[in-house]
């Protein structure tokens, strides 16, 4: 099972296109119209290759502190002081209590913590940021999620961990570490070409997700990488409730059930969806690709469309980006948006 998960998981190099010779029954694909979109100019801030980072897996920027996820280096992330250029390695590779085998969901929260999720070991790694005033602890820690489940992405939101995975019980896990209590909420998106597939199969189909929590920890957004589906939810009374779900297009896939584990293979003509999200207290900033592997090859995840939503789920704006990018972050200190590929850029006029 875990080997199969690794072929569909997460991020840009883990997807399987094994059934791409012929397309499945084509689902309605709704393109996001960018004809009238304003182009946002970018200003380069840093060449990340100069920092020894060649494949970025996530970015966080808070004032002078830049945290970069490193997909292929000896550490999973590095904290760079932009004034002194000093570096601090975060989340070393390994199986010790503060190390990780393979991570997703690089994020920060209102507790001045940096988190990353090790989906191989099912644990959320936590370390204080460099800007933390009088941190409670300078040591890294982790939260172990229920070991009987296959978890994919996870973030911390106040006292809870929110996670997605191959769950039959529901779309989202809401886990309380203090009470060691797990609860599952909401349903997976359907697929019009496969209306009768099992919940476990839907879990595989919609496995690759981006999760971000609102700074007040009362809401979160989940976007799918291999479709145009984005889900905005609130956390209330220890429950998850859906605010709004948009589906710009469904994934183009071939699905076979009946074996011990469902076979979900994406078409090379599948439109890639959202590669990353940034959030502020009142806005959601989602970068969207809309490209296919057949047309764009390994660059299919590079995004030049920025969609801006409010937390009620209204699509407010859509912009074109000068540079094709893969990651985005909102700097709460500067109130500015930054994006990256192998360089870090600031978005202007937003």
Automatic annotation (TrEMBL):
Top-level lineage group: Bacteria
SUPFAM superfamilies assigned to the protein according to its UniProt record, in alphabetical order: YVTN repeat-like/Quinoprotein amine dehydrogenase (SSF50969)
PROSITE patterns, alphabetized: PROKAR_LIPOPROTEIN (PS51257)
Alphabetized InterPro entries for the sequence: Quino_amine_DH_bsu
Name the record gives this protein: 6-bladed beta-propeller
Organism: Odoribacter splanchnicus (strain ATCC 29572 / DSM 20712 / CIP 104287 / JCM 15291 / NCTC 10825 / 1651/6) (Bacteroides splanchnicus)
